[in-house]
Amino acid sequence: MRLAIWPILAGIALGILAPVLVYFGNPGNMGMCAACFTRDIAGALNLHQAGIVQYIRPEVIGLILGALLASFLFREFRPRVGSAPIVRFGLGIFAMIGALVFLGCPWRMWLRLSAGDWTAIAGVFGLIFGILIGIFFLKRGFSLGRNRPASKIVGFVFPLFALGLLGLLFWGLTGENTPIKFSTKGPGSMHAPLIISLVAGLFLGIIFQKSRFCMIAAVRDTILMRDTHILQGVIALVVAAFITNLALGFFNPGFSGQPIAHNDTLWNFLGMALAGIAFTLAGGCPGRQIILSGEGDGDAAVFVLGLLVGAAFAHNFGLASSPAGIGANAPMAVLVGFIFCLLVAVFAREKRS
């Protein structure tokens, strides 16, 4: 088996930097989480009113701008758009709802596991189950259509949005007549220093763009094409994170008392299963979609906006979980999400000439 240098480097980088960010102040087992951090941004922008999860995370800004920089460095900046934007938006909404029922994106799932959080095991099986459902439909012709080249301004829209978030972050930090909300307690109030977070995000954005690092691709490519390049990166992530957590004293094995996690096995499985099928149909995990949006992919940008709105729905309508358990309305939302994803998977076909 040929070693995949870039994905392995990406996995090692995430596995080391995420616990280090926790050491500098990020929430436990949440040094880097595309879903949770997008949820925090939604709260800071007043899209939801959950006071404990509101903060404009510099890591997300860094991921987008790092991907933009890398796409120029490696001559891969290709503004493009595709088809079915409303479907991609809906997939983003339900992917976020599923992730917040589990309490984390696939990145955080592996980071939780590497720190001894055994409640994440159900999420691993759920994610793989969801991806397998998506692969079943991919083999039978599922497609949201091909993308096509677009003008450069299309490619710059989301990076400009990231710069806008950076400006709002500085404005919010001033605390003077600002509508931006930042948590004073809870996970949203826990964050590494701004410069450290931003630089870490920029670095990961660059290496993720070059490596095509994606949790969904790791499973999908291994099954469909017997290509283990990305899977090697995921393995490297788990090993590096485990070693780093041990070194920093963060390894705490068990099912109870884990930071920002619940021990409802069924809903950990189902939440991540919903996220898995939505990510697979959309073409990548939330981290990968954020990176793609930075390199000019308009489809990915629509999906990320769906994540942002999904986070608002999750906290405004009692769908998101907490350490106490799942939200009151989560079961119905997950059921609706599965129905939506399956309808899309059954009826979306690429027209052949």
UniProtKB/TrEMBL annotation:
It comes from Helicobacter ganmani. This is YedE-related selenium metabolism membrane protein. InterPro entries: Seleno_YedE, Sulf_transp_TsuA/YedE. The keyword Transmembrane applies. Pfam families: Sulf_transp. The chain crosses the membrane at residues 5-24, 55-74, 86-109, 115-138, 150-171, 191-209, 230-251, 266-286, 298-318, 330-348. Keywords: Membrane, Transmembrane, Transmembrane helix. The keyword Cytoplasm does not apply. It comes from the Bacteria.
